[in-house]
Amino acid sequence: MRKFLLTLVTLISLAAGAQSTISTTSLQTEQQPAVPQQVAQALIFGYLSYDSVLQSMPDYATAMQQIKILKNKYDEEAERVEKDFNKKYEEFLEGQRDFPPTILQKRQSELQELLDKNIAFKEESSRLLESAEKTIMAPVHRKLSDALQAIGRERGYIFIINTDNNTCPFVNQTRGEDITHIVRERLK
Asked: Is pLDDT at 35 greater than 90 in this prediction?
């Protein structure tokens, strides 16, 4: 995010510098047309709520459904494993008074091993689910990115700003254009 903001500030500074250079040049020679106005018109940008557009895409709904199904499978398996552990633990508690010390230790180590496996499974499933989510969402993000690239080139923007999470608290609407609806229409 810092890199983006630094790039944005640099672009704006360069544009402002170009405008002031062009303005002083225009003042020096009255024969040239009013170039600052052309530069100002060329410095337009687009802005949108990326999340809003993303969530309105039909592909997003499909991807989220796939992720939900996968998550449910992992949750079901975690629940099954937890029930198995609880059953063995209850059996251990009921019989622990009657077990000889070696059987007691064996059962305790079995329970500890099951507990360790359950924890490892939960961690691994969480990691795998996160990875699967990235893989499933990658084509959706790529499709949105391609649409933004095309719209940016077609409309002559110098950049497109994502206004989510209050990253851009002010947008000069005379220099920028809200393209949320344009992108939504393109992605239908």
From this structure: no
157 and 41 in contact (C-beta within 8 Å)? Answer: no
The pair of structure tokens assigned to 114 is 């099951």
Kindly state whether residues 142 and 174 are assigned to the same domain: yes
Listed residue (113, 129, 121) closest to 68, CA to CA: 129
| Domain range for 103 | 45-187
When divided into structural domains, the chain yields a total of 2
On the 0-12 / 13-18 / 19+ scale of CB atoms within 10 A, 43 is buried
Task: Kindly list the distances between the CA atom of residue 21 and the CA atoms of 13, 185, 186, in Å, as whole numbers in the listed order.
Answer: 12, 40, 38
135-159 per-position pLDDT tens digit: 999 999 999 999 999 999 999 999 9
Tokens read off for 90: 């209850």
Residues 15, 10: Cα–Cα separation, whole Å:
8
- In the chain, what is the straight-line distance between the N-terminal and C-terminal CA atoms, in Å? 29
Sheet holding 45-48, edge to edge: 160-162, 45-48, 176-178
Q: Which amino acid is at 62?
A: T
